[in-house]
Amino acid sequence: QVRLVESGGDLVQPGGSLRLSCASSTSISSFGGMGWYRQAPGKEYELVAAFVSSGTTNYADSVKGRFTISRDNAKKTVYLQMNSLKPEDTAVYYCTGFDYNGSGHDYWGQGTQVTVSL
Q1: Is the pLDDT of residue 38 over 90?
Q2: Over the stretch 82-110, which tens digit does the pLDDT of each residue have?
């Protein structure tokens, strides 16, 4: 059974930093790519950052230069380093694995809350 488990969400002041982790029960290379979505209250899901198996990474314009996605294949873990956080970054952040073993099926974690506030 494939599971993705996020951690690292917290309450942080504007300008602060957080690192989210996504632990996978299966090898990261099992997915065609992995990424982080977020959903703020009353808003749609937004793809924040992602990489594909070739190594190409993409970021939402709103987080470019502030967020960095990375992975540790040995630990089967994907990270999202978030710096210079803003109140508008407040959301539930979800880890996603795309196209598991070429099946076209995506997997999602349960989400972790990030709140940026004084």
Answers
A1: yes
A2: 999 999 999 999 999 999 999 999 999 99
Q: Which of 91, 117, 100 is nearest to 6 (CA)?
A: 91
Distance CA 63, CA 31 (A): 24
How many CB atoms sit inside 10 A of residue 10's CB? Answer: 13
The tokens describing 75, both together, are 């630990």
Please state, in angstroms and rounded to a whole number, the distance separating the CA atoms of residues 79 and 55. Answer: 14
Tell me which DSSP letter residue 60 carries: -
Looking only at the bridges linking them, the beta strands covering 67-72 and 18-24 are unpaired
pLDDT recorded at residue 54: 86
Structure tokens at 100: 């598991």
